[in-house]
Amino acid sequence: MASLTTTVGGIKLNCCVYNASGPRTGSAAALKKIAESASGAVLAKSATLVKQDGNPLPRGVQEIDLGERSCPGSINSEGLPNAGIDYYLSSECVDGVAESAPGKPYLVSLSGLKLKDNLEMLSRVGSTAGVHGIELNLACPNIPGKPTMAYDFEQMESVLEEVFKQAPKGLPLGVKLAPYFDFPHFQRAAEILNKFPIAWVTCINTVGNALIVDATNEMAVIAPKGGFGGLAGGYIKWTALANVRQLRKLLKPEIDIVGVGGVASGEDAFEMILCGACAVQVGTKHWSEGPKCFDRIANELKSLMDKKGYGTIAEFQGKLKDWSKPPKALKFGAAKASTEVSGTSAKTVQMYQAIISCLLLVIAGLLQAALRAR
Ligand code: DHB
Question: Model-level pTM?
Answer without folding.
Answer: 0.89
